[in-house]
Amino acid sequence: MTSIDQPVLRTPYQRSVADYWNNEKNAVNLRLGDIDHLYHHHYGIGDYDAAVLEAPAAQRDDAIIAEMHRLETAQAQVLLDYLGDIAPTDRLLDAGCGRGGSSIMANQRFGCQVDGVSISQQQVDFANAEAERRGVADQVRYHLRNMLDTGFDTGAFRGIWNNESTMYVDLFDLFAEHARQLAPGGRYVTITGCYNDVTGGRSRAVSQIDQHYICNIHARSQYFKALAANGFVPISVVDLTAATIPYWELRARSSVTTGIEEAFLTAYREGSFHYLLIAADRV
Questions:
Q1: How many CB atoms lie within 10 A of CB 98?
Q2: In order along the chain (283 residues), what is the average pLDDT of each group of 10 residues?
Q3: Closest CA to 43 of 13, 17, 78
Q4: pLDDT tens digits for range 168-197
Q5: What is the pLDDT of residues 120-171, one digit of tens each?
């Protein structure tokens, strides 16, 4: 059988993750995306405008939500910056695409075809409906596929990214599949949270994040071991930890908190958790 003939969900864990995201309707994702129909499933970077906290009471929460969305969109812009020179004739893959906001942004910037994959049918249907609404469904397509075995052609993509989705899979398996799909010289970029090897394992706060999102946060060192094992050479490594703390501080003061904010702030501030951007070339 080819990979696309096989079941998308192949383990009880994958089924539990798909169930989580099929049923997820958090305002922290949906209300922010309603602003401009760019729906993200990641966090933000950069300093927030403190003026939003001084807005009149009737307008304050909307101002905070808009500012949070600006920060999460800025995060996606930074990730796309590191893909390098992408031509309209190239093809990109958004691995773990969520509701598809980053794929839409990539198409707007580069004018190329973008494919997104998710194991959540709800996310895929939502994202494809947004591509149709924007009139870009011929260029931006979302697929119910497993990012560890997508069924796409070998060497089909010039660039691939994961935006906060690597913690759901084995890194060696993931980067082996990315290496297969990338054309020689292609670029891989991820933004991810990872625990600090120096602290000797997952801290209590990092374990709380794992439990909240049903994920398995990897050690920082595992990214570089798995990349090297699959023929990737890092070209940029950027520590975004300090840059993401303001987002979490603002989110903690918003109406769309989910109860995990304090764990993130604790983990980042104590140094047990890092927020990294890694860009690597396939050689």
A1: 27
A2: 74 96 93 96 97 96 97 98 98 98 98 98 98 98 97 98 98 98 97 95 96 96 98 98 98 96 98 98 96
A3: 78
A4: 999 999 999 999 999 999 999 999 999 999
A5: 999 999 999 999 999 999 999 999 999 999 999 999 999 999 999 999 999 9
Token output for 107: 């198409």
CA atoms within 13 A on the CB side of 259: 5
Which of 224, 216, 249, 267 is closest to 43 using CA atoms? 249
Q: Specify whether the backbone of 272 is left (phi greater than 0), alpha (psi in -120 to 50) or beta.
A: alpha
Identify any residues that bridge with 188 across adjacent strands, giving them in sequence order: 160, 280
C-alpha–C-alpha distance, residues 197 and 219, integer Å: 6
Amino acid at 268: Y
Query: What percent of the chain clears pLDDT 70, i.e. is strictly above it?
Result: 98
